[in-house]
Known about the structure:
The chain is mainly α. It has a single domain (16-257), classed as Ribonucleotide Reductase, subunit A (Orthogonal Bundle), CATH 1.10.620. Helices cover 75% and strands 2% of the residues. It has helices at residues 16-23, 26-37, 55-83, 89-115, 121-128, 131-145, 149-174, 177-207, 210-236, 244-247, 249-257, and strands spanning 40-41, 44-45. A two-stranded antiparallel sheet has the order 1-2. Helix 3 (55-83) crosses helix 5 and helix 3 packs parallel to helix 6. It is globular and about 55 Å long.
Amino acid sequence: xxxPQDASVNLHALEPEDFLEEVHSFEHWFESVSGYLVGLDHGxxxxxxxxxxxxxxxxxxxxxxxxxxxxxxxxxxxxxxxIAIAPNRASKIFLSTQTADEGRHVxxxxxxxxxxxxxxxxxxxxxxxGRSIRNFRERLLELVAAHEWDSAIFAQNVALETMxxxxxxxxxxxxxxxxRDMLERILRDERRHIGFGExxxxxxxxxxxxxxAWLSTVKSELDRLVLSTFDEALEExxxxxxxxxxLGRDYLQAVARLGLD
Length: 261
C-alpha cells in the first residue's frame, strides 16, 4: 500500500483492497476537502455578495433550508451511530470523516438561516421543516438503532445522499449567489458519501447475493418516503412538475447500479 505522503501514486493503480483502504482514510479526506474549504465564511466564500431576498422568495428559501437542516442532521446522527456497528476498520474511519462532513453541513445551513434574519434557527427548523424528511429521518435512525448495517447504509448513503445531491444540484442552478456557493461545496461531499454507500453495498451483495432481495424490500419501503420528500422539496423550490421525473433519475440510477428492483 502506498504511503499517505506519496501523493504521486495513482489511486486507481492500487490493488482493490489497498484502494479501499486509501479512499476511506482520513488522509484522503483531508486531501479531498482542503481545496474547497479553506478561507470560507461559514460555508461560502467571503467575497460572494449577499443579494436582497425579501417577501415570498425569502420565506420559501427559509422553509427549504429548514428541511435541509433536518436532512443533514439525520445524516449526522446516523453516521455517528453507524461507526459502532461498522463491520471493519476502514468503514469506521470513513464514517468518522462523514460525521465531520455532516456536522459542518448542519452548521453552515443553520448559519445561512441566521444570515437571512432568522433569530432562532433551531426553533425555525422545528416549526417549518417538511413532514416527509422528518419521517425519513425517524426511519433511518430506527434502522441504525436496530444495527441493520446494510439497510441503514442503503437508507443513508444511497437514498438520503442521492436525494440531497439531486435537490441541492437543482437548487444551486437557481439559487442566490451565497446559497449557490454553499450548496456547491456541500455537493462535493455528497458525491463521496454516495460512492461509499454504493461501493460498500455492491461488495456485500457480491459476497452474499441474498442481500439483494432484502435490500429490495427495504427499498420498496423507503420509496414512498423518498418520493414524497422529493415532491415537498421540489415544490418549495418551484421546480416545474414536468422536470421532476428527470431529477428523480439520480435515485433510480443509484438503485439500478445495485441491481435492486
